[in-house]
Description:
- With 132 residues, the protein is mainly α.
- Helices cover 78% and strands 0% of the residues.
- Helix 1 packs across helix 2.
Amino acid sequence: xxxxxxxxxxxxxxxxxxxxxxxxxxxxxxxxxxxxxxxxxxxxxxxxxxxxxxxxxxxxxxxxxxxxxxxxxxxxxxxxxxxxxxxxxxxxxxxxxxxxxxxxxxxxxxxxxxxxxxxxxxxxxxxxxxxx
Length: 132
């Protein structure tokens, strides 16, 4: 059944606490990576991507904190997330949102592959017609 309002509120608070905790861990790791960069070491591609994601999350955190700090503004958060879906830092995303994003990316890749396959087939037909 449905969860009581109190349980929903507790679950949301836990979600945000976990999100801030994960962001803190990512920030510490990113700081170590920046330290390594400043001392002339080279980052792997995976480390570079993690550093970029963490920096982007920190920049996204600024508008997100407005919703957390201003009283009763968190009720407008779902509206703003509908308007600006990339506003939320990655550590605050739920599994369902991550799966939805992956599905969208996969569908886009499939459409691109289909388009490229059709284009190549069309080019092959033209080449056969030109040479035949």
